[in-house]
Write a structure and sequence with these properties.
Layout: H1 4-144, H2 147-163
Length: 164
């Protein structure tokens, strides 16, 4: 029995010591440890929520970027189409204007040519008439220098006048 009694005492004092240690730990260490674990758990939840929110925001930003990029492409295509249409219109207008100006220049040239032609014809007629008068004058001087020729000419002219 001697052996059992000290063993029971040891067990008793070990239990008492354990209970006292448990009470001291509960009073001083358990709350801070649970608080730290709870804080850590809360910070992990917050970090996961923040990461999830950041991921969602990143997806939204990517979707916005894609939408903006698509809109920019559509706007660029529309601007290029408008620029092409404006260019084609300007080229067509320039061609039309060039044709109109060309026709106008041709008409002006024709009018100038006609005017020059008329002027040249008038000059030519004037020169021909002047030359004809000079020739007729010389012929008449030669013809009329002789008295017999003058009488013949007068008779011929009278004969021609009676026939008409």
């Amino acid at each position: 029995m001697d052996l059992i009694t000290p063993g029971l005492g040891l067990v008793f004092w070990t239990i008492i010591t354990f209970l006292i240690l448990l009470i001291i730990l509960k009073k001083f260490a358990w709350k801070p440890i649970l608080g730290a674990v709870s804080e850590r758990e809360e910070s992990i939840k917050n970090a996961l929520l923040s990461a999830d929110n950041a991921r969602k925001e990143m997806q939204n930003l990517q979707a916005d970027n894609q939408r903006i990029l698509q809109e920019a492409r559509l706007e660029r295509d529309a601007m290029l189409k408008d620029a092409r249409e404006i260019k084609e219109k300007m080229v067509a207008d320039a061609k039309n204007e060039a044709q109109v100006q060309g026709l106008k220049m041709i008409e002006q040239a024709k009018a100038a040519i006609e005017s020059e032609k008329n002027t040249a014809m008038a000059e030519l007629k004037l020169q021909v008439s002047t030359l004809s008068i000079e020739i007729a004058e010389k012929l008449l001087k030669d013809e009329l220098s002789n008295k017999a020729t003058q009488v013949k000419l007068v008779e011929k002219m009278l004969g021609d006048a009676k026939l008409s």
